[in-house]
Amino acid sequence: MSMRRNQTAGSAPREVGSLPRRDFLLRTLGGALVAAAPIGCGTAPQSRTWGPYVVALTSSSPALIAGEEASVFQLGRQIAIPIKPRPEGLSNTPSYRRPVWITPDQLRIQLSYVITNLEDRDLQIELLVDGWNGSFFYAPQVRVVDDEIVADRSCVQRLMIIPAKGRLEGRVSFDDFERMAIALAGIGNTANKAPNPFHLLDPTTKLYESPLSKPHIPAVIESILGFDLSLRTTAAVRLAVEATVEAIDREDVLMDEGEEAESPNRRRESYGRTALTPVVATPAP
What is the DSSP letter of 202? Predict the structure, then answer.
């Protein structure tokens, strides 16, 4: 039994220009990106940080999938952004199941992490980040197909080698989360869903240029409001990630400091979100 990823291309670094920058978005969408449901007017941006959040694998961690030739060990946790309750009386937003009231321009998110290898040997691991918006949470699957372990592509999927007894620092940037929001908007588009979700999640895809992604991206993009952070390996090892989350709140959408626990956005199932399991559509005969 071997393991392979369900994806459309390799895991090469993002090509320069493949992520639409903010000025490109505003020009392309004619301001629609920030017109979904303004919360405040002239609010000064605020920067907030939460964490550390810890995910740790141990030598006794059970396998997610165990096979004779290969196994998968994966552990994660949900990290919810403590946003305020959704205002009442909002109209449904086209291409979404619910009203969109927070966009990437109003709420910017970034994840910083440190991965620590407690083993006496180098480890090859994957760091996975899978986001939520107000309608659904992205739920990639790991399963056995024809005696192979097949793992769906995650929103952010970083394969790396951690040196023995070493540490590795990294970041899932503000732009990475914005790209994630755009990709998920196309994958979950209720009016014109993208037929191949893995193409949109491929970091080399130019989302606003590719004919397999551009027609499926709605005019209004909903912000990522939380995410699953996971570690994946092919062996039971001692490994941990410590993560902190930074948010830039431009429209006063976050709960006040000290009141974050009162946010209705506590887990991925909150707000009535449903799982979005990626499926590649079968071409019509």
Answer: S
